[in-house]
Amino acid sequence: MKMLITMKSILLAVSSNPSTPAETLAQLAKHADITVRNAVAQNHSTPVKALVQLAKDECSLVRETVARNHRTSEKVLAKLAMDKHAVVRESVAYNPSTPVETLVQLSKCLDDNISVAVASNPSTPAETLVQIAEECLSFLVTEQNSSY
Prior knowledge:
Distance between the termini: 65 Å
Oligomer: single chain
CATH architecture: Alpha Horseshoe
Order of helices and strands: HHHHHHHHHH
Number of domains: 1
Shape: elongated
CATH superfamily: Leucine-rich Repeat Variant
């Protein structure tokens, strides 16, 4: 049992290491263990093709991590922006590599965490930031007036 734990720790270390060759990372992206796949998804040296594969992972944690990786393509980020799990969409909204159109689309989402992520993203267009701010100010005025 101790040997298996050690082997898993070694695989995680290899998966996380930015010096790991692309071919090895691509192979580890297919590993049965979620934590290994997640470590590969987090690695900024992971080849784009492996990130595309990991973006389709059954585990939302792995997809969330792919969405945060700055090497993830705009096409994959746009697809992940429609994921059924809000945490994946939130991660897309935080990624500065996310296309402007996708950020604008996510800004219309009613999820507060996604709105914060879009508002925090340096790639969000000024017009969208103004719109988000105006909506928040309008809501605050309405709330303030209704409390009197």
